Amino acid sequence: MRDDEIIKLWKSGLSKYQVAKVYERSYNQRVKIVRYDRRNRYERFITKYEALAYVEKVILEEIRRYE
Predict the structure, then answer these.
(1) Can you say how many angstroms the Cα of residue 31 is from the centroid of all Cα atoms in its chain?
(2) What does the DSSP 8-state code read for residue 42?
(3) 11-20: b or e for each residue (b if 16 or more CB lie within 10 Å)?
(4) Phi first, then psi: what are they for 22, rounded to 5°?
């Protein structure tokens, strides 16, 4: 999930917690697929707090851009 998709979800009315949950699910889904490869088997999943931290950073940058 790219930053513009996060902003789009946030502007559509979802709270930052809901957007973080969507981001966490999509990220962990991609990691699950990547972990099938032997070379990338140590990739780790993110927690909801890590997802929320990333989403908050993206939203804050978007707000600061228009101030």
Answers:
(1) 12
(2) T
(3) eeeeebeebb
(4) -65, -45
Locate the DSSP E strands across the chain: none
Contact (CB, 8 A) for 57 and 44: no
Assign 17 a pLDDT band (cuts: 50, 70, 90): very high
Whole-model pTM: value is 0.90
CA distance 8 to 14: 9
* pLDDT (0 to 100) of residue 40: 85
Cα separation, 17 vs 48, whole angstroms: 9
pLDDT at 2 over 90: yes
Q: Residue 56: exposed, middle, or buried by beta-carbon count in 10 A (0-12, 13-18, 19+)? A: middle
